[in-house]
From TrEMBL, chain A:
Species assigned in the record: Pleomorphomonas diazotrophica
Compartments where located: Cell membrane
Protein name in UniProt: ABC transporter permease
Family as reported in the entry's similarity comment: Belongs to the binding-protein-dependent transport system permease family.
Primary location group: membrane
UniProtKB/TrEMBL annotation, chain B:
SUPFAM superfamilies: Periplasmic binding protein-like II
Domain of life assignment: Bacteria
Subcellular localization, as worded in the UniProt entry: Periplasm
Protein name stated in the entry: Probable sugar-binding periplasmic protein
Organism: Pleomorphomonas diazotrophica
Signal peptide: 1-24
Purpose: Part of a binding-protein-dependent transport system for a sugar.
Ranges in a coiled coil: none
GO cellular component: periplasmic space
Transmembrane region(s): none
UniProt GO BP: transmembrane transport
Amino acid sequence: MTDLAPDQGGEAARRRPRRWHILVFLAPTVIIYTAVMILPLIETLRQSFFNVVDGEHVFVGFANFATLFGDPRWAADFWNALGNNFIFFLIHMAVQNPIGIALAALLSLPGLRFAAFYRTAFFLPTLLSFVIVGFIWKLILSPIWGVAPWLMDLVGMKALFGPWLGKSGSALIAVSLVSVWQFIGIPMMLIYAALLNIPEEVIEAAEIDGVTGWGQFFKIKLPLILPAIGIISILTFVGNFNAFDLVYTMQGALAGPDKTTDILGTFLYRTFFGFQLQLGDQSMGATIATIMFLIILTGVCIYLFGIQRRIRRYQF
Amino acid sequence: MYRTTLQGVLLASSILAGVGTAAAADVTLNIESWRNDDLQIWQEKIIPAFEAKHPGIKVTFSPSAPTEYNAALNAKLDAGSAGDLVACRPFDTSLQLFEKGKLEDLTGLEGMKNFSDVAKSAWTTDDGSKTFCVPMASVIHGFIYNTEAFEKAGVEVPKTVDQFFAALDKIKADGTYIPMAMGTKDMWEAATMGYQNIGPTYWKGEEGRKALIAGTQKLTDDAWVEPYRVLAKWKPYLGDGFEAQTYPDSQNLFTLGRAAIYPAGSWEISLFNTAGLKLGAFPPPVAKDGDTCYISDHNDIAMGLNAASAHKEEAKVFLEWVASPEFATIYANALPGFFSLNSTAVEMSDPLAKEFVSWRETCKPTIRSTYQILSRGTPNLENETWAASANVINGTETPEAAAKKLQDGLDSWYKPAKM
């Protein structure tokens, strides 16, 4: 009898199934994500510490970073791109998100007719390829063939029209607004979902207490959707500081006129891959990519540790 | 004669194409190029002519967008996925590929003797010992004009700068046509069709270009700033909203017959011919009647062999053919405006192309000032010139300030004595 116990224990261990399925189900995502995201990221970070000196690929420590911030030309280009990127981001925060919230609030009004149609229409541009969006808007705003000058003429505002994409004062704003137009669907949908999640009881209680209309939105609904607004802000931040495609399709890799629409993404592209006679510089490109990574990381950390923890959540 | 052979070739190729799909043993050569406009001509004229003579070798022309070509090609060569044959940009872009071992040394190619040293200069090492691409064509800058627009406004073809601006004034006063079709949105138009087009007249072509490389002249010298001052005067003659006008917009404005003068490169000829307009061309105007004129006759395109190609023997057969007078004739006529660099004289049929090429006899040719050596460093002089030219025309920067910025940028890395 006594020698049975270890046998039983062994059997129990044997009977407890090895949970292979966890590994099997995780594997595809882990492998793919590692291969296409984590490894390239590590490789980029590594490469930013290397450069080609006299034809040799050598470790240079922080020399690339010193060039990026120390050399007046590199620094000027970098700060210009970073500054433009902040303007790009601020326009999104100031225009895209409030309008997104407003649209969501209107859509969630009970009794709104054609709500499904509006929802689809507002969200549609988000589904379009940035190439199409960039090209369409370039055509719309074209002073030669565009419909914008013609439409403005119809309402007698032709004089206010300008070749916005070609003027250094307005190009960045124009491109930002096109981007806002394209991505307005995302905050709208997220907020819309958050608004629908607010229980009827809360709204009814508010109505019984006499809080309706605007007051109801600002006093009851807005505090309840704050977490969603936080998420949207951080998504906008990450998206904007990674942005490249729309500027590239609308303004080209030189991000004209005179680099006024140059954001970190286009600056990285030009440096890394080269442009026209300028040859690609992988090391400096990787350095810029690393800085971009750090900027985004910092932003996300500030949000996660500074803001998200303080947002009050309501459980129903 | 030429036409019938061509038809024969086309017929033969269409039959061969049918057979070719069955024969799996064929070697296929891929050509990388930035000339996406030429896709049809390669597919319909050039490749069939080659394949008819060389059964067993198939050729595919796979171009990419011009502004993306260099970056794409570098990436493809590094990754080992580039085509067997690559179109070579002139000077440093290709030289660096050769030095990195990406392009095969073609000095020993039989057909190289068909080209002069000047023709090969853009694809030869600095010491002149090795050539790595077979020169195909050069392009000439000038102005193309709409004959009807000139008749309507009653202007003669301008010879001097003063006449040029007088003509523009008249066309503007007449109001039927936009005086000049050019935009600054894409920036390279302003630099290539503007600055590099009229510039050689002021810096005296090769003389100034070599002095700039030697360091005896600076971009802030009068000879280099003056073209910017002239460019700044172009602004009132460009169409409404030229700041947002792209290169295709300019092409369309001109081919739709809405503009009178188009600051051009000869590569536009084949496209413009399809518009059915009566066109003429004149070289960049000079300061005083009788002055020597200078034109930009820029070595533009060549073809090299990818060192990692699996079919080098077949690719060399193709390159030998590219170096032959037969190819030169097909190419120069199929693409009027791309002038053969082959030493054998090529008979061209296109009147506009003939006009352009005739300037070679009266004017002194040079190449674009920024291409050789001067665009090796960071900031890149060519790219900076794009921005500077666009800024000067937009009026956001004075010619002097733009020139100073360019020279400062060049000084930051380029030491003439060391070269």
